[in-house]
Specification:
71% helix; mainly alpha; two-stranded antiparallel sheet; 11 helices; 2 strands; ABC transporter involved in vitamin B12 uptake, BtuC; globular
Amino acid sequence: MSLHLVLQNLANGLSLGSLYALIAIGYTMVYGILRLINFAHGEIFMLAPYFLFYGVLIFHLPWWTSIIAAIALTAVTGMLSERIAYRPLRDAPRISVLISAIGVSFFLQNLAIVIFTGIPKSVHRPAFFKRLFQFGEIRIQSTLFASVIVSTIFLTLLIYIVYKTKTGLAMRSISTDIETSRLMAVDVDKTISITFAIGSALAAVGGILWGLRFPQLFPLMGMMPGLKAFIAAVVGGIGNIPGAMLGGLLLGMSEILFVAFLPALSGYRDAFIFAILILILLLKPDGILGKNVQEKV
């Protein structure tokens, strides 16, 4: 394979990996605080481009206004799912919360089928997102620049929130010991709601960028990206925010390069990703940047 094709595929992998990273951060935030795998996160991701689609089509909102509204509505949906499905089970066994998360996932999938129908729809793309930039023999979609820039901005902002604000201090306190945090006057319910809102907003940004890169919407579109983002979080070290970003980038690169170097096996790209998960769990179950944390029973 020539050098320009390698560089082309690396650029494509960077674009895809940055999208996985945005979704994976939501997984890792919720897990880092509650030790909960929010399996409905892929469906939260799916809702954002639908909100964008109907904001432009039905309410005739300007495109940028519709994006802001879609992110806000997705964040509210994440908070509602926490309030209705997870908060009542805060002191229940872990398996009960896990089952609830799976139930929320199926509920949102089927609700989307009823409301949005199963007919695929296309996100309106402004002219900028249709452009291709030529660098010698390398062609790069404008969505690559958008994905990388937006991912970097949101990761920086998130790290600032977690490590430089009182809300972030409360998040880190709860992740260490939720009961002691309550005794120290931390508003646990409010902090967890904010965590879900931030994670869902990041999923919304990822979903909108995904809809711009692959402009076809359908109710089950969040299932596979959600699973891959979960794998990215595990690879990087679930519960670790920079690890989620690293895992997403590595996973996106691996998927694209697998197809590029083994085109005859491109139909097994998803199986290849799950094989990476198995290897990580066997060789380094804490992930690349993860730490060995003793689970409480």
